[in-house]
Design goal:
- The chain has 249 residues and is mainly alpha-helical.
- It has eleven helices and no strands.
- The longest helix is centred in the N-terminal third of the chain and has 31 residues.
- The chain is globular, with a radius of gyration of 19 Å.
């Protein structure tokens, strides 16, 4: 299947203009930074293990900020526009035009991914973690993979839903589960082992390690978890949009 970079760029510019003209779409990533800064000023500075503390302040803030940005922002920014276009019957018209499905979704994904990656970087100083003390390439690789997974989950919800209200309803339990990951991992050891097999759990492990001194290293478990989630999300998304008759090659 050949793709037209001109058409991808056209979709990208259209989506970027729509996003910049609708600040409500950009609210979740902005709020994640503001929340982390605000909580950082309110919470006492605690190191992991200090006085029996299950987590460090900076690790908790970074973990919560990343999951809030990647889960809530990533899923809502990708699901809501597609559900809206589907509700207004503009998505099917576009999919039956000269723009191929892959071109549309790639063009739509790029501005969302850029915003998520930029926010992930800004969350480091916001949470009190220094760039000089962490392996930035590893941080970018893991957070970008998790962002892609969230975008694909958002695409699945958007294509499956009949309208924005249904998309919001389906998203809610998923978002609650993901945003609860840092707290659940910190206070329940048995549940923490289970959550390690979610991409939210990998993000939480990364944040804790970075806040403890930047000692995180890639391991087979985390890498396998991310690639399984990515492959599963991509497979389900392709199946869903083909089933909904949106595949025009």
């Amino acid at each position: 299947m050949s793709l037209s970079y001109r058409k991808i760029n056209a979709v990208l510019q259209l989506k970027l203009r729509l996003m910049l003209s609708n600040m409500s779409v950009l609210f979740p990533p902005i709020f994640s930074i503001v929340f982390v800064i605000a909580m950082g000023n309110l919470m006492p500075e605690v190191d992991a293990g200090e006085a029996g503390a299950p987590f460090s302040t900076s690790g908790f803030l970074l973990s919560f900020g990343l999951i809030f940005n990647i889960a809530i922002a990533g899923i809502s920014m990708s699901s809501s526009p597609i559900a809206e276009e589907k509700e207004k019957h503009t998505l099917r018209v576009l999919m039956t035009s000269s723009v191929k499905g892959a071109e549309y979704f790639i063009g739509s994904m790029i501005p969302i991914l850029f915003i998520l990656v930029l926010t992930n970087l800004l969350l480091l100083p916001a949470s009190g973690v220094s760039f000089e003390d962490i392996p930035v390439p590893t941080y970018l690789a893991i957070t970008t993979l998790c962002s892609l997974i969230s975008i694909l989950i958002g695409y699945i919800i958007g294509v499956y839903s009949k309208n924005q209200a249904q998309a919001s309803l389906i998203s809610t339990p998923i978002l609650l589960m993901l945003t609860s990951t840092p707290v659940l991992k910190a206070f329940d050891e048995n549940l923490a082992r289970f959550l390690d097999y979610s991409y939210g759990g990998v993000l939480s492990n990364l944040s804790d390690s970075l806040a403890a001194g930047g000692g995180y290293e890639w391991n087979l478990t985390d890498a396998s978890v991310l690639f399984v989630w990515l492959a599963a999300a991509l497979t389900i998304f392709i199946y869903i949009y083909k089933k909904n008759g949106l595949d025009n090659g």
